[in-house]
């Protein structure tokens, strides 16, 4: 039997090895250009000195416009210096001497390192992670491959983003399954964890096979008590056979890296996210994680470029390998961004996930308290940290959210956003690039809108 690994040039495995390994923060510029330097590519500008214990130093890693309070930076994140250096190094290598990266072997190696970094960060195994270009790709990949029968039920909420609605609609159309949508709360500001769990439990039927949920609702800032939902499902599933178990599938984009938790802490079956939001990872990257049991309920829908997939092709057999490898869509991607994922994880871990989460929580609480004190402002997001995270939404009496956002930017140098839904609100997202003083600045701006 032919070894497929021997049919592909292996020299690329050694090219730029420092890129995806340790030391990215200590010498981001030099290590990121280790491979590119062999072909004479210019080195990127030396990044500022980085002290992960100093928030001023952390913010200095971002090339964000100065004197602007960036409360929407989480949405399409700015790259911190170590991530930019890693991307630049890979890009220069690909641009100046692409043959040195081989026909696929570089992706096997560097994507494997990306999985390893993500797995360590979320407390999982690398083979349980499928790499994607976005959360939407992950959502489509997940629901598009779930095994469902006619009249099986997908239960979702009225608070999801478009991507989930469309993905479950498409799957229902293809399989004959049904989609049912419920409200988890009537007034988001008064949302309670026990109420949300109770409504979900009451809505589950003998035909329910999937809960399609979002961890933090980007329209309201309400945080779903995922662990409590998972614990409730343990009891629901106790008397069900494996094919009839209810799978908890979580879109985690606005909780991932804003909350310091692992997959074990959440207890979900599947977790989908992008990394270019609260992690401030490379734009155009994301992943799907699933438990081994959950992956067995999923079927590959896009050809993979993984080693197990090529092994199957070369031997004329169906591919056999880790579910994350086989579920990762093949083809060519923005490899320099995907391969730079370890730099983003290392940057975040150097600061400390718990410290980042506490920074976000503290500023969110300050922001919510200040907004709640303004008579012309209605706070939409719950005050309690149990059911809210980094997203803070509000409405200004007599003003459209777009007008609020425009005035905040022009008159107060505060960057906020309007939620992209039929019912829209003003949205703030404190993060590692904002400060308590900037929260005060945002509140002063909101107070002036009378």
Question: Can you walk through the features of this model?
Answer:
The chain has helices at residues 17-20, 28-32, 55-60, 81-96, 105-122, 135-145, 162-175, 193-203, 226-237, 263-266, 292-295, 307-315, 323-327, 335-338, 341-351, 353-372, 401-412, 436-447, and strands at residues 69-70, 129-132, 153-157, 178-182, 208-214, 247-251, 270-274, 286-290, 377-379, 392-396, 414-415, 417-418, 426-428. Mean pLDDT is 90; it is low at 1-43. Strand 6 (247-251), helix 10 (263-266) and strand 7 (270-274) form a beta-alpha-beta unit. The longest helix is centred in the C-terminal third of the chain and has 20 residues, at 353-372. It has 450 residues and is an alpha/beta fold. It is globular and about 70 Å long. The N and C termini lie far apart (76 Å). The protein contains 18 helices and 13 strands. The chain has 2 domains: 114-348, Aspartate Aminotransferase, domain 2 (3-Layer(aba) Sandwich); 353-447, Aspartate Aminotransferase, domain 1, CATH 3.90.1150. A 7-stranded mixed sheet has the order 2-8-7-6-5-3-4, sandwiched between helices. The chain has a 4-stranded antiparallel sheet with strand order 9-10-13-12. It has a two-stranded parallel ribbon with strand order 1-11. Helix content is 40%, strand content 12%.
